[in-house]
């Protein structure tokens, strides 16, 4: 099974650099990287071209013009170029553990998709890590308890203990909780069946919930990736959330339509 890791980015080379470095250090190297760029400036393109020269992985850069926050569209454009059967969606400010790809591979199953999990890093710890000469997971892990006790990170045990697959991971119905588009995976054919992410949802917020709802509405079972796929989410400024309410309304409309339809059957 070939995996395509789709990394969304926008004008944040320092974080993207460490994310790509962490992908270089995977124990499972059978994957490609597609950088889904929502209109970054030329400096990002130059950085990616330079990084590709020494990378062990196949990397492609898919770019669209900066016309505002259009994450859904750039993810769809990147997915269209994916050669993998299985898509793992990742944000360009989420550093991954060395077993990230292998853990997603172990959870991949026909008829299912995975919503992963994250550990949040404080602004101070983010600045500290990005000041390192390069990403070093062993160095990070050796200080994890200190980071946790000093509130530099909001999780400890899920980064130390990995749990296997099982029915306990399955969601029986749609819930908004714990949907993180920064760490999510599905079969490419399943994403194509529902026409990918809803490009009508622009601006920050809830395009991931909409994607999850429509996958479940199409008969797929959501599987939790917690205690298995945690990513390290670097701190960033809060995005413009002016479209969030409208995006949430669109999702609720689809849920209501499904509920109404089911009640008539």
From TrEMBL:
<dbReference type="InterPro" id="IPR050834">
    <property type="entry name" value="Glycosyltransf_2"/>
</dbReference>
<protein>
    <submittedName>
        <fullName>Glycosyltransferase involved in cell wall biosynthesis</fullName>
    </submittedName>
</protein>
<feature type="domain" description="Glycosyltransferase 2-like">
    <location>
        <begin position="4"/>
        <end position="144"/>
    </location>
</feature>
<dbReference type="Pfam" id="PF00535">
    <property type="entry name" value="Glycos_transf_2"/>
</dbReference>
<dbReference type="GO" id="GO:0016740">
    <property type="term" value="F:transferase activity"/>
</dbReference>
<dbReference type="InterPro" id="IPR027791">
    <property type="entry name" value="Galactosyl_T_C"/>
</dbReference>
<dbReference type="InterPro" id="IPR001173">
    <property type="entry name" value="Glyco_trans_2-like"/>
</dbReference>
<dbReference type="InterPro" id="IPR029044">
    <property type="entry name" value="Nucleotide-diphossugar_trans"/>
</dbReference>
<dbReference type="Pfam" id="PF02709">
    <property type="entry name" value="Glyco_transf_7C"/>
</dbReference>
<feature type="domain" description="Galactosyltransferase C-terminal">
    <location>
        <begin position="173"/>
        <end position="221"/>
    </location>
</feature>
<keyword id="KW-0808">Transferase</keyword>
């Amino acid at each position: 099974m070939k995996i395509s890791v789709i990394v969304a980015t926008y004008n944040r080379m320092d974080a993207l650099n460490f994310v790509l470095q962490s992908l270089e250090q995977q124990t499972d190297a059978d994957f490609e990287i597609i950088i889904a760029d929502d209109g970054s400036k030329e400096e990002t393109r130059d950085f990616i071209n330079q990084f590709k020269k020494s990378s062990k992985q196949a990397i492609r850069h898919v770019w669209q013009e900066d016309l505002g926050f259009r994450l859904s569209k750039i993810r769809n454009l990147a997915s269209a170029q994916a050669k993998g059967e299985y898509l793992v969606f990742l944000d360009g400010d989420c550093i991954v553990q060395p077993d990230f790809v292998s853990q997603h591979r172990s959870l991949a199953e026909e008829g299912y998709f995975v919503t992963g999990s994250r550990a949040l890093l404080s602004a101070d710890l983010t600045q500290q890590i990005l000041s390192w000469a390069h990403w070093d997971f062993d160095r990070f892990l050796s200080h994890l308890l200190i980071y946790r006790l000093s509130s530099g990170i909001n999780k400890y045990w899920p980064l130390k203990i990995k749990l296997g697959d099982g029915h306990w991971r399955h969601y029986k119905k749609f819930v908004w909780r714990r949907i993180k588009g920064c760490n999510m995976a599905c079969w490419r054919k399943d994403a194509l069946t529902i026409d990918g992410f809803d490009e009508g949802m622009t601006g920050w917020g809830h395009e991931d919930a909409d994607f999850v709802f429509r996958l479940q509405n199409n008969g797929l079972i959501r599987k939790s990736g917690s205690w298995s796929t945690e990513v390290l989410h670097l701190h960033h400024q809060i995005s413009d959330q002016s479209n969030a309410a409208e995006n949430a309304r669109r999702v609720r409309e689809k849920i209501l339509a499904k509920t109404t339809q089911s009640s008539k059957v």
